[in-house]
Amino acid sequence: MKMFYNPFSPFSRKARIVAIETGQQDRIELVLINTEDPANGLSAYNPVRKIPVLEADFGPLYDSPVICEYLDSRHDGPNLLPAAGEARWRALRWQALADGLLDAALLIRYELNLRQESGRSEAWIERQTTKIRNALDRMEADAAELEGPVTIGTISAACALGYLDSRFADWDWRETHPGLAPWHAGFAKRPSYIATIPRA
Predict the structure, then answer these.
(1) Domain ranges of the chain
(2) 85-190: same fold as 2-72?
(3) CATH of region 85-190
(4) pTM for this model (two decimals)
(5) What pLDDT is stored for residue 9 in this prediction?
(6) pLDDT in tens, 105-148
(7) Which residues does 105 contact at the CB level (< 8 Å), separation at least 6?
């Protein structure tokens, strides 16, 4: 299998962590993609040109929730996505919350980095910032749910907080959300998390 990715993409990181946690990293060839290059050929695998993309035997899979669920179906260990019941819905809810935070953070990055300063919308940036703050507040309130087995929800939360560390370090989410800090510090010691830290 091939995975089209970028190390600075938090959604790519989530899929890579799942691959490592399920022991499948050696079966996947990582293909680095510059998403800003119109000639990168990504549209041949994903029409909307988003990463990650996993080229499976039967064709490409996208986006990260689909890839992660596919990888989770292909190993013999404990499932990262519980099969049924409250645990399943809680894991999926955490994934949706973390992915929503990341969507807002990426929109801010695009606004600041790709748009001319004269054309930037401070109101737009503030709306996305509010979404991130609200997501962090909910994560803080429910932080006790993150304890226990690794799931797609905990992986997603770790990737979201890691992205804030790498791209919005001046926000210092640990100071305003101290309940999340010790959990994240523990998760950040996992080999899968360490191996996927984006490096310039």
Answers:
(1) 2-72, 85-190
(2) no
(3) 1.20.1050.10
(4) 0.94
(5) 96
(6) 999 998 887 777 777 788 989 999 999 999 999 999 999 999 99
(7) 128, 132, 160, 163, 164, 167, 168
Query: Which residue do the tokens 């949706």 mark?
Result: 96
Q: Rounded CA gap, 14 and 94, in Å?
A: 13
For 2-72, CATH number out of 3.40.640.10, 3.40.50.620, 3.40.50.150, 3.40.30.10 equals 3.40.30.10
Which stretches within the chain are classed as H helix? 10-21, 64-72, 85-114, 122-141, 152-167, 173-176, 180-187, 191-195
Rounded Cα gap, residues 99 and 177, in angstroms: 18
What does each C-alpha distance from 4 to 13, 38, 80, 133, 159 come to in angstroms?
11, 15, 22, 30, 18
What are the Cα distances from residue 67, in Å, to 87, 102, 185?
20, 17, 26
